[in-house]
Write a structure and sequence with these properties.
The complex is a heterodimer of chains A (about 290) and B (about 400). Helix content of chain A is about 75%, strand content about 5%. Chain A is globular, with a radius of gyration of 19 Å. In chain A, strands 1-2 form a two-stranded antiparallel sheet. Chain B has about 400 residues and is of the alpha/beta class. In chain B, the strands form 3 sheets. Chain B has a 7-stranded mixed β-sheet with strand order 7-6-8-9-10-13-14, sandwiched between helices. Chain B has a 5-stranded parallel β-sheet with strand order 2-1-3-4-5, with helices on both faces. In chain B, helix 8 packs parallel to helix 9 and helix 11 packs across helix 12. The termini of chain B are far apart. In chain B, about 50% of the residues are buried. Classes of the chains: A mainly alpha (about 290), B alpha/beta (about 400). The interface between A and B is medium-sized, with 32 and 33 residues.
């Protein structure tokens, strides 16, 4: 059981990162960015090309990857928001979905259909044992890195002026605008932070999943489900949702086998949302204002 | 005068036409024609590498045979069609090859469903349906006389692989508690059934059976259950990407027991993805490692293969490509003996015996359309330094 809990936490920490990046965009713009999974994929393939194929120094590869996802997120934001500010969020969903499909197919054309091995940047060695549980560098590294990143984002949102402006915008766009917050800048910023988290998730998950054009679909879907489970509009809720989702996956397949896992998981998911439609940690609009 | 003029007007084009006809008839003398062989395979899409391997191997053999004088002066020519993963397309391709192009023999797709779809067409058209890739039992069952009379298979069968893997785990690796890991597709379920039957034959029971979905990436829960069951070997039945995930998850868990797998994971992708975690994995293969063979005939083929595919030194020639190569020579031998008559060709093929370049014996009789014979025909290879070699034990 212990091993499954540990591996569930590792994968869950990555889901949490993706869930948080869904929630950051949703909280400020009311848009679900369905291209997010593909942003993870693009980050992963860029890192693969620069660090593995072209043998760049790791840091240079990471920097270029970050630059690429920032550019990408800027374009996504242009597509989903700038030109369509007066269009309803449903249209924006579809636009991000379309952008995701385009990215997915472009990646298939560029990198082909085969998965590639992706090196662990954190090391693969087993550090110590707790009973039979072998704790390895990769696993611990993922959990620590994810928690650190999420803590930084959380601190940024709660304590800095820009972060507070983001929260204010998410609560009431017009009012925020009226008190002098540059709403467009806030939107751009939230897309950028979300993309950075997605890139981090890519680096952390690729050694487990391998790098391929199709890797984004699965992580995108699960990150989104995790965010819904926790709370799509509350960053902390999304994080807990991600961890719970990863844990539940691992424990359910340990107890009941992998075929029973998904039906049980999504059944629980439906039950939770029936009882609490805003997610486990979701607040209604009035609670958020209070 | 007038008649003369008309004659003159038609003279120049007429002359051209006459010369053209003469030239055409000279360039392809009626006594030398191409003998057409059809090949269907996934040449694009996710399974493309299998079909491309097939074409490359077949073309190496065809070029060699043609350079050595062809079939009594006639040249062999391959017409390749792409059916991707679409059985309807495989059927249409077979129809075109059999009825329009009039091929003398048909190399079926490496994918089982596509193979079965084209089989209906080729056998109705009485064209020898040659299987050099597919190992699935159903396309040509092993029981005497159970195979369609126009179908011939050169590779080993899945059930034989399962039996050999079970024997190897029990007898050579001395495993007492064997765990099975198989995917939830038809391939995996078929493997599970065969493995369980084979273990039962040996008087052994499966310690634990674990299944998973093709999209799974973390196998910790399954492996933990396998560890709880105190298994001392794992036989997998799935594809390369999944076994790569399994051996990597094992490494992270610190679970150190032998892993065995079916022929599907001889493909280079498995070793590339799994990296060092693949070391030591035992794999059922249709022939002894062509990779550490010192035989000059094998080395010549491997050299040509590398030139044609620009393949990485270590990753070795896939063994199914050797089967395609052998199959063309086997077919050519029969063609030399009996010519193009379909009925005679079929009779010649089902009374043939041929030794492939790696020393493998293919024997066919009217009752036995699988060239190889039983689990004894299956070899075990092992991953060592990223290559496939004959294991020490």
């Amino acid at each position: 059981m212990l091993e499954s809990i540990f591996s569930g936490l590792v994968i869950g920490a990555i889901y949490a990162l993706v869930a948080l990046s869904f929630s950051i965009i949703f909280a400020t713009t009311n848009i679900v960015n369905f291209a997010l999974g593909e942003v993870v994929m693009v980050a992963c393939m860029m890192a693969l090309t620069t660090i593995v194929t072209m043998q760049w120094p790791v840091l240079a590869g990471i920097l270029l990857t970050i630059l690429a996802v920032l550019l990408l997120s800027y374009f996504l934001q242009l597509i989903a928001l700038k030109r369509l500010q007066r269009v309803d969020p449903n249209t924006a969903f579809m636009l991000t979905l379309a952008a995701g499909i385009i990215l997915n197919n472009a990646a298939l054309l560029i990198w082909g259909d085969k998965p590639f091995p992706f090196p662990s940047l954190l090391g693969e060695r087993i550090i110590f044992h707790i009973g039979r549980l072998a704790v390895n560098q990769q696993g611990i590294g993922v959990i620590v890195a994810a928690i650190l990143l999420m803590a930084v984002v959380d601190w940024f949102q709660r304590k800095t002026l820009i972060g507070k402006a983001m929260v204010a915008t998410s609560l009431d766009r017009e009012a925020a605008s009226a008190v002098g917050i540059n709403v467009n800048l806030i939107y751009t910023l939230s897309f950028a932070i979300s993309a950075l988290l997605a890139a981090a998730a890519a680096f952390l998950i690729a050694p487990f999943t391998f790098a391929s054009y199709y890797m984004g679909t699965d992580i995108g879907l699960k990150g989104f489900a995790a965010a819904i489970l926790g709370s799509l509009s509350q960053g902390r809720g999304a994080i807990v949702g991600g961890l719970l989702f990863g844990l539940a996956e691992a424990i359910l397949s340990y107890l009941f086998g992998s075929n029973a896992r998904d039906p049980l998981l999504y059944l629980a998911f439906i039950l939770v949302l029936m009882v609490k439609p805003t997610g486990l940690f979701g607040l209604s609009r009035w609670q958020r204002l209070a | 005068m007038k008649r003369m003029f008309l004659w003159e007007k038609g003279f120049i084009p007429g002359l051209f036409f006459g010369v053209l006809v003469l030239l055409l008839s000279l360039s392809t003398p009626s006594w030398a024609k191409d003998i057409l062989i059809g090949l269907d395979g996934p040449l694009s899409g996710p399974a493309a590498s299998f079909g491309l391997d097939a074409i490359n191997a077949v073309n190496i053999a065809v070029d060699e045979i043609n350079a050595a004088g062809g079939i009594k002066g006639d040249k062999l020519k391959v017409i390749a069609k792409d059916s991707m993963q679409d059985p309807t397309k495989a059927r249409a391709n077979a129809e075109e090859l059999v009825y329009k192009d009039g091929v003398v023999a048909f190399f079926a797709s490496t994918l089982t469903t596509n193979n079965l779809a084209s089989l209906e067409v080729t056998t109705k058209g009485k064209v020898p349906h040659i299987i050099a890739g597919t190992t699935s039992d159903v396309v040509c069952p092993a029981a005497p006389g159970a195979c369609n009379p126009y179908v011939f298979r050169l590779p080993i069968l899945n059930s034989w692989q399962a039996e050999k893997l079970a024997i190897y785990a029990v007898k050579n690796l001395k495993a007492k508690r064997i765990a099975l890991m198989y995917d939830s597709t038809g391939y995996g379920l078929d493997g599970k059934k065969n493995l369980e039957a084979s273990l039962q034959k040996l008087g052994e029971k499966t310690a634990i059976s674990e299944t998973f979905n093709m999209s799974d990436v973390d196998f910790t829960p399954q492996l933990q259950r396998i560890r709880d069951a105190k298994a001392d070997a794992i036989i997998t039945w799935t594809l390369g990407v999944q076994v790569a995930h399994i051996v990597q998850s094992m490494k992270r868990l610190g679970l150190n027991i032998p892993v065995l797998g079916s022929e599907a994971i001889t493909e280079a992708g498995f070793r590339k993805l799994a990296g060092p975690a693949a070391e030591g994995v035992y794999i059922a293969d249709r022939m002894a490692s062509a990779y550490d063979s010192r035989d000059p005939k094998v080395q010549a083929f491997v050299k040509k293969w590398r030139e044609r595919t620009k393949m990485d030194e270590k990753l070795a020639v896939p063994s199914w490509s050797v089967t395609y190569y052998d199959a063309v020579y086997w077919l050519a031998e029969a063609l030399k003996k009996v010519g193009l008559d379909r009925e005679k060709l079929k009779d010649a093929l089902e009374n043939s015996s041929y030794t492939g370049i790696t020393g493998i014996q293919y024997t066919f009789t009217p009752q036995k359309h699988n060239g190889r014979s039983g689990p004894e025909a299956v070899y075990i290879v092992q991953v060592k330094d990223g290559a496939l070699v004959t294991p020490k034990q």
